[in-house]
Amino acid sequence: MNVAFVGLGTMGSPMVMNLLSAGHSVSVHNRTRAKEQSVVEAGAIATSSPQQAATDADIIITCVSDSPDVEAVILGESGVIHGATSGSLIVDMSTISPGVTQRIAKTLAQKDIQMIDAPVSGGSEGAQKGTLSIMIGGAEADVEKARPVLEAIGSTVTHVGPIGAGQTTKAINQIIAAGTYWGVAEGIALGLKAELDMDKVIQAVGSGASASWCLTNRSDNMINNRYPLGFRVRLHQKDLAIALQTARELNLPLPMAAYVEQMENGLIANGHGDEDLSAIARIVREMGGISDD
């Protein structure tokens, strides 16, 4: 299948690699053109703009940072809308506002271009391994059209409802992640203060009801106070802001999510926004007077 892919960040580049490995023809574009090099060397075709990438593509995937970025690459000057043909399908795999998603979809429909929202969870590891969880909003027929492409990217592909429902589901995911990361950080802090053997602690609690992806994959970061990039703090803060805005529109208080968002704001202000999300353990360690040793 002819696929266009716009946005080659931490998630986008490995997703393109998996599409190429599955035998799809992939045209790519990225605002920072140097980031196209690795996927072009693997067989992707570089293009000069989102518009050019979308030309002759059956499915156009966008994976960029925030709502304004998605609007720009799809609807802006030299955007996808100017290159996509009638009957083509846009799959937005960014994490953005459900309302913005719905507004973009309405604009595209006026040109007989369909859209589904398909944000993902699973981090950079999942993107590399092709094991992402993909949560989709849109029409059933459009989801089925995209499924062969999405199955090259993720191991779990779930149609959760109409357009925008994928983004709302991703907001739920990020709320749960916020509580999980914060809880793991506090638990590890207690173990460190009590001077326990943390390898044995993680083995014990990770085999019971407290098991989680975060505990398995990010506890070492929190124990060692080192946070190599998996998913940026500043991107999770952006996602939580979307979740909280969605909750306000539904008159739903989310005190835990609001608290973690404020903690992430502090990390960003102190220069840690581009570290992995597990860096929220920095705050718990600091409050507890836990040294870096």
TrEMBL record:
Record PROSITE patterns: 3_HYDROXYISOBUT_DH
Alphabetical list of InterPro entries matching this protein: 3-OH-isobutyrate_DH-rel_CS, 6-PGluconate_DH-like_C_sf, 6PGD_dom2, 6PGDH_NADP-bd, HIBADH-like_NADP-bd, HIBADH-related, NAD(P)-bd_dom_sf
Record-level GO BP terms: organic acid catabolic process
Active site: 170
Pfam families on file: NAD_binding_11, NAD_binding_2
Cross-referenced SUPFAM superfamilies: 6-phosphogluconate dehydrogenase C-terminal domain-like, NAD(P)-binding Rossmann-fold domains
GO molecular function annotation: NAD binding; NADP binding; oxidoreductase activity
Keywords: NAD, Oxidoreductase
Keyword Mitochondrion: no
UniProt domain 3-hydroxyisobutyrate dehydrogenase-like NAD-binding: residue ranges: 164-283
Domain 6-phosphogluconate dehydrogenase NADP-binding residue range list: 2-161
Similarity section: Belongs to the HIBADH-related family.
PANTHER family in the cross-refs: 3-HYDROXYISOBUTYRATE DEHYDROGENASE-LIKE 1, MITOCHONDRIAL-RELATED
Protein name: NAD(P)-dependent oxidoreductase
Organism: Leptolyngbya foveolarum
Lineage of source species: Bacteria, Bacillati, Cyanobacteriota, Cyanophyceae, Leptolyngbyales
